[in-house]
Design brief:
The complex is a heterodimer of chains A (about 140) and B (about 425). With about 140 residues, chain A is α/β, with parallel strands linked by helices. Chain A contains two helices and six strands. By secondary structure, chain B is mostly helical. Chain B has helices at about 5-10, 15-20, 30-40, 85-90, 100, 110-125, 130-160, 165-185, 205-230, 230-240, 245-250, 255-260, 270, 290-315, 335-340, 340-350, 395, 400-405, 410-420, 425-429; strands at about 45-50, 60-70, 70-80, 195, 195-200, 360-370, 370-380, 385-390. Chain B has a three-stranded antiparallel beta sheet with strand order 1-2-3. In chain B, strands 6-7-8 form a three-stranded antiparallel beta sheet. In chain B, a hairpin with a 2-residue loop joins strand 6 (about 360-370) and strand 7. The chains are: A alpha/beta (about 140), B mainly alpha (about 425). The interface of A and B includes residues 29, 34, 40, 67 and 126 of A.
Chain lengths: ~140, ~425
């Protein structure tokens, strides 16, 4: 039983996943993302990986030699696009739609790039760190 | 212009080919009406809406069905009606408050979300809970698996038209929930499994109560067999309906009873053991045909396996602490607060600012009644998670619906939704 983490450049993601599929990684379990905008300091990246605002996290599982591999992909804020994994693993469709909905990361070549959890006319991407949590302003007597 | 033409017009050749052969209807949520209006006289297909307020959709699942007469051609599950931003909420709750949040995701098997969250937190902390905590967690999870599968028996029976099953399944489930209530204080949303261990030790008389449940359930499961398994109407409704194979399941990332119904034996408890599952002996139940009946039978027999696991847990339950003795993580006992200044400070610190967790990222997974439930957690060294993501098995499993329903009747669609057993709280989070 092994668990490994690999840092993959964005343009090599599809090839890496295709290689892993040939190595016996039968399923993509999870596709998610992290917005590192407000993170105080990232120390877990190897020196050759330049940190970017977004990080796409893809978790694959191998059954023959039980183990999971987690791919971490840096995605810049200025160009938040990633190639879709739909053609390799159709099960990523809903997961990628969720990441697109919540983080505004665009999956190029995705067959259904619509919002999945938020209403279709929603503005903004809720899990971004600069998306303010909605609130009703409280009027304190002292501030009047 | 037919629905498929509209979709085709907006896409590349490759995508068109894929979509035309796909079971998934990929149109916008409110395109149905427009397509209906634009359809020509020769186009007999129509887009039908099912849900989100529909008794057989197990909550608030909406389905767009492309129908040819009464046959479902393509379909699209539309979700998000129960979305409350629980992952965003988690970024404002300390690690001690976190289980209160995640327990509300999969409300039919809440302890599994708590367990995944706690395992992830403990992995970041580098903390090993004491053996008794591990075994209590296993006991609770198996009880919860039983109650969740009993709920499935109830709702599945009701969806198929065996309405009396609803009463029996609910009655048996209540027995299991009563036991969970005795131990945790709550029927659901327990907040019992917490980072470092569990919230409280097992109460006096727990062993007799578990034994009572283990005695009471098997004859009732045999009654289910009599009522359902051998019943021709029930079999007719389920056998050969909603068929999927192992390769399709793996490609779609499906786990749990749906994957096992295809004859593919994969269970994290056996194949990637966590807690102390390598110390108990049980069978991974698999099906043969991957149809609704196999999925029903697997869940029924998994209850029997869980009862077997319970017996082994009773034999092997170790004495000792039920939570880790780390004063930075575990709140002190109430009596200590009156005696010790340090205990009072620890109590105050843990419940106000929480405990700090070293920076890092981790993925922890458990086998929930619905499949692999994973928790991806990123810590920035503070006392709240920087990011907390739950990989809900229902969310991924829901993608099988279009593939299972294609070519079937609307009545089959009801049986299929039921056999996938989605919990919308976990789908939408």
């Amino acid at each position: 039983m092994s668990n490994s983490v690999r840092h993959v450049p964005r343009d090599q993601l599809v090839e890496t996943v295709a290689e892993l599929r040939d190595e016996g990684y039968v399923s993509v379990l999870d596709v998610t993302a992290v917005d590192y905008l407000e993170h105080p300091g990232r120390t877990d990246l190897p020196p050759e990986v330049a940190p970017e605002r977004f990080e796409l996290v893809v978790t694959l599982i191998s059954h023959a030699a039980p183990g999971r591999t987690r791919l971490r992909v840096q995605v810049p804020a200025g160009d938040p696009t990633v190639p879709t994994l739909f053609d390799l693993y159709p099960g990523t469709e809903a997961l990628e739609r969720e990441v697109a909905d919540m983080f505004g990361i665009v999956f190029e070549g995705h067959p259904d790039p619509s919002r999945i959890l938020m209403p279709p006319d929603w503005e903004g991407h809720p899990l971004r760190k600069d998306f303010a949590v909605g609130h009703i302003p409280v009027q304190f007597k002292a501030t009047r | 212009m037919s629905a498929s033409e509209v979709v085709a017009a907006a896409a590349s050749d490759e995508a068109v080919r894929r979509r035309d052969h796909s079971a998934v209807l990929r149109i916008g949520e409110d395109d149905g009406e427009r397509l209906e209006a634009e359809a020509g006289a020769g186009d007999t297909r129509m887009i039908m809406n099912m849900g989100p307020q529909h008794p057989s959709t197990h909550g608030v699942l909406r389905l767009m069905l492309e129908m040819e007469g009464e046959t479902v051609m393509r379909s699209k599950p539309v979700i998000g009606y129960l979305h409350t931003g629980m992952e965003k909420t988690a970024e404002n709750l300390t690690y001690l408050q976190g289980p209160t949040n995640v327990t509300r995701m999969d409300y039919a098997s809440p302890l599994f979300s708590e367990l995944a969250f706690s395992l992830a937190t403990e992995a970041l902390l580098g903390l090993e809970p004491p053996p008794r905590a591990t075994w209590i967690r296993m006991l609770m999870c198996e009880l919860n698996r039983i109650s969740s599968h009993l709920l499935f028996q109830a709702t599945n029976g009701m969806d198929i038209g065996a309405v009396s099953m609803m009463i029996y399944g609910w009655r048996e489930r209540e027995e299991a929930l009563r036991l969970l209530e005795t131990i945790t204080g709550l029927r659901m949303n327990h907040n019992y499994i917490r980072p470092g261990g569990v919230a409280a030790d097992l109460p006096d008389g727990w062993r007799d109560q578990v034994l009572g449940l283990m005695d009471a359930l098997p004859p009732r499961l045999d009654e289910f067999d009599t009522l359902l398994t051998g019943q021709p109407i029930y079999r007719e409704r389920l056998q050969g309906v909603g068929v999927i194979n192992s390769a399709e399941c793996l490609a779609l990332g499906v786990t749990g009873p749906i994957l096992r119904s295809t004859g593919y034996a994969w269970d994290l408890r056996r194949d990637m053991p966590y807690l102390a599952y390598d110390h108990v002996d049980f069978d991974v139940v698999v099906g043969t045909y991957g149809d609704c009946f196999d999925r029903y039978a697997i869940r029924l027999n998994e209850i029997r396996e869980s009862i077997g696991i319970l017996a082994q847990i009773l034999d092997q339950m170790p004495p000792g602490d039920y939570r880790v003795q780390d004063k930075k993580v575990t709140p002190p006992p109430r009596a200590r607060i009156d005696e010790s200044m340090e205990a009072l400070i620890h109590h105050f610190k843990i419940f106000t600012e929480g405990f700090k967790v070293p920076a890092g990222e981790v993925y922890a997974a458990v086998e929930s009644p619905r499949g692999e439930l994973g928790c991806y957690m990123v810590s920035d060294g503070s006392s709240v998670p920087y990011r907390m993501h739950i990989r809900g098995p229902s969310f991924v499993n829901l993608q099988t619906l279009p593939h299972l329903m294609q070519g079937g009747m609307v009545a089959d669609a009801v049986a299929i939704i039921s056999s996938v057993d989605p919990i919308m709280g976990e789908v939408d989070r």
